Amino acid sequence: MTICSVIAGCDVWEDIVDxxxxxxxxxxxxxxxxxxxxxxxxxxxxxxxxxxxxSEFERCFRKWVSSVCGEEETEECEIISIDGKTLRRSGSRxxxxxxxxxxxxxxxxxCWGSMLWRCFCMYLKRKIDTFLAEWKADSNxxxxxxxxxxxxxxxxxxxxxxxxxxxxxxxxxxxxDVKYKGIISNGYEASDIIKNISLIDPTKKFIPxxxxxxxxxxxxFREITTSLKFFCIDKRFDVICSGSMLGVNxxxxxxxxxxxxxxxxMYSMDFEEFLWAKGYENAVMAG
Length: 287
Known about the structure:
The protein is an alpha/beta fold. Helix content is 40%, strand content 18%. Helix 9 links the parallel strand 5 and strand 6. The longest helix is centred in the first third of the chain and has 16 residues.
């Protein structure tokens, strides 16, 4: 009864019970269900289904569908379409989004199975990792600007480095977090910017010597680069900026912070980085 209800478009237990009540005569006549004690309540249906092993049900359901559609025709002649989706708003900075993949038999119009999972991505070693480690080891390090095209791994590389080297990470993305464009309203001094960030989000912790301030997507707010001079002089917090397609606009950034910053140009994964990702050691690659 539940399967028939779901096929008919019911998606909550109350609707399933209502459908079964309307179709009770059909269930008795066509499926020969006795229903001696009447229709089960929505609570009973939910309790019973919660005790069923999903993988075992899937195995039985596939077997039943094969008997309905014809197993030989389905296996040899059927075209199976694979469809994948990412569930909207199911992910966050701390957790990857939920992905759903379904297998659809086109000829018989049956969904052969769906699966949900979260992708736990493995970080791939990049050449910027070595540069960032050397930058951190320099006692006279200056604020860093990482330049490069979009979608090449700038943000992921910086955050991966930050998680291993800092107790507190202050990440501000000027595309996503437009409200932070007002942090320079009182000037460019490090103390003024820190105060304004704290007013917007009091949970952000600024621990001298143990904090990285990461200004991402500075293309959308180039004015923030003027503050790099003052952060360099202040020396209490490390600062990394990242931006894509800076182009001619970088002349403005250069003039704002000349002598008080360090630049790094990042590129798409090259062949050597690809071999690292495939598991090849440097010794093997050199040979």
